[in-house]
Design goal:
CATH class of the largest domain: Alpha Beta
Order of helices and strands: EEEEEEHEEEEHHEE
Helix content: 10-25%
Strand content: 25-35%
Radius of gyration: 20 Å
CATH superfamily of the largest domain: K homology (KH) domain
Length: 178
């Protein structure tokens, strides 16, 4: 049996009965979005718009397009950038959670994440890797070594990193404010 309940975040928590729940699954969530093309689609490759909007109830729209290499608008987010951004954001959120639990005060967090995608002669593309390069500033007196080691469990807990089939590396820099 499956039941849905929508939380404040917009994600639907899926309640699975004991018989339907896979071993090891405590909770499951469903995420919904709407995608709309913003211009008339035409059959010629050079002529159709690659622009789209991603929206969901109660959220700001994300204006997207194809990568400029595939005739997209460089001023809009492309799916490849959104994938790298999702990995970066998920890691950051887990890291901040773990840092707060460890009593480490983070005063700044930036990331210079980069992903490598390859496209074969057959036109099929796939990501080969993503490297996260967070620079984390902690308060003077914080345990800098502990702050550095928290990146490993943050990576292990990241829902997005656990869902991709390519390596995600993390090369953190920890700075003590002062």
């Amino acid at each position: 049996m499956l039941s849905l309940g929508r939380g404040a975040s917009g994600a639907a928590a899926i309640g699975l009965s004991g018989a339907a729940r896979p071993a090891g699954v405590f909770r499951a969530f469903e995420y919904q979005m709407h995608r709309q093309s913003t211009r008339r689609l035409v059959p010629a490759y050079r002529d159709y718009s690659r622009n789209y909007e991603i929206d969901a109830d109660g959220k700001l729209a994300i204006h997207g397009s194809a990568d400029p290499a595939f005739r997209g608008d460089p001023s809009r987010w492309n799916p490849e950038e959104l994938l790298v951004a999702s990995l970066s954001a998920c890691h950051k959120l887990w890291y901040l959670h773990l840092a707060a639990e460890a009593g480490i005060v983070v005063t700044a967090y930036t990331d210079r994440a980069a992903g490598v995608m390859e496209v074969g002669r057959d036109g099929v593309g796939r990501f080969k890797s993503v490297v996260l390069r967070p620079t984390v500033t902690v308060t003077m007196g914080s345990d800098v070594d502990r702050a550095r080691t928290l990146h490993k469990p943050a990576h292990e807990k990241c829902f997005i990193a656990n869902s991709v089939n390519f390596p995600v590396e993390c090369e953190p820099e920890i700075v003590a404010a002062g």
